[in-house]
C-alpha cells in the first residue's frame, strides 16, 4: 500500500479496507467498494497494482477481483428476487 500511495493515489485510497489473496500467479482482491472492480478494468490502475506487487515480491502477477458472491449464487434465484423486492419495499417506505 505504501508504494501505491506514492505511485497511484486514487487506487490506494479505494483499496483501504480491502484484502488480497494469492492463487498461483494471480492476486485476487476482495473489496466491498464496487469502484475497485471498475478501476481494475483500466490498465492504468491494474498496472499500478501489478508494478507495486512486483516491487515488493519480485513476482509478476495478474490482478483481478475476488468474486465473493458465492452464497448468493448458491441460493435459490427466486428467493434472491423476493429478498431484493422486500428490501426495496422496506427502504421505499421509510
Structure report:
The chain is an alpha+beta fold. It has a single domain, classed as GMP Synthetase, Chain A, domain 3, CATH 3.30.300.180. It contains six helices and three strands; from the N terminus they run ααββααβαα. A three-stranded mixed beta sheet has the order 1-2-3, covered by helices on one side. The protein is elongated. The chain starts with a helix and ends with a helix.
Short description:
This protein has 94 residues and is of the alpha+beta class.
Secondary structure layout:
Blueprint: H1 2-7, H2 9-14, E1 19-23, E2 26-30, H3 34-40, H4 43-57, E3 62-65, H5 70-74, H6 77-93
Parallel strand pairs: 2-3
Antiparallel strand pairs: 1-2
List the keywords:
single chain, 94 residues, alpha+beta, GMP Synthetase, Chain A, domain 3, three-stranded mixed sheet, 6 helices, 15% strand, elongated
Structural class: alpha+beta
Shape: elongated
Q: Overall pLDDT, averaged?
A: 85
Helical stretch count?
A: 6
Sheet with most strands: strand arrangement: 1-2-3
**SSE run:** HHEEHHEHH
Biggest sheet, open or closed, and with what strands and sense?
Answer: 3 strands, mixed
Beta-strand residue fraction: 5-15%
